[in-house]
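Two folds, back to back.
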Amino acid sequence: MDMPTAITLLAKAFGAAILMGIGSIAPALGEGNAVCKALEGIARQPEASGELRTTMIMGCAITESTGIYSLVVAILILFAL
């Protein structure tokens, strides 16, 4: 393997790793905040737990899509480009 090819592969791997690192921080913080506030709301009004739980699960699913998008882009960087 020649040097430019090795540098290109290294740059692709490093870029994908950075992308996954940054792309996974935001969903983790968002989901943690959503669960925290939902539990706080359930503690204040236990009778609204069903609606709060449903809304929290939908919010976590939408937030997790950001992490999945970064995973897809990282895979594209590694194998398609």
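---
second:
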Amino acid sequence: MKLIKTVFLVVFAVAMTLPFGMGKPEYAKKEGKGCTFCHPAGKMKELTPAGQYYKDHNHSLEGYKAPAAN
């Protein structure tokens, strides 16, 4: 019985934290961009300038102009 309670608590804890830790692949699909367009490679909790724009503009890249490459 103790094992069942432990497993239940672990599953519950994981289920409660998943929405906060996972990205939204539907955003990449919607915009036709890869994840690294909005997130630095290997740092999915951080945002690139495009990602910050997307977040600040109601999940839309409409009107976004990428910085000029040097």
